[in-house]
Amino acid sequence: MISQEKLKQLRINNGWSQDQLAEISGLGLRTVQRIEKEGKCSLESKMALASAFSITPRELEQQEI
Minimal CA–CA distance to 45: which of 63, 61, 65, 31? Predict the structure, then answer.
């Protein structure tokens, strides 16, 4: 599980749309949308998102931004 709110806030802070985040992370748009909505994702997706934001995967689990 990751923090949906943190993921959304990181994306907005970078000025990215969901589509842009999908492209940068190498994930599909529907995958990014689902993760933002549900907070559930595979380890591979978590690693891709963390890499896109230059943070650790664990930081995506934490509520504080």
Answer: 31
Per-residue pLDDT reduced to its tens digit, 12-39: 999 999 999 999 999 999 999 999 999 9
Structure tokens at 5: 């709110």
Whether the CA torsion 33, 38, 43, 49 is positive or negative: it is positive
Single pTM value for the model: 0.92
Secondary structure in 3-state letters for the chain: CCCHHHHHHHHHHCCCCHHHHHHHHCCCHHHHHHHHHHCCCCHHHHHHHHHHHCCCHHHHHCCCC
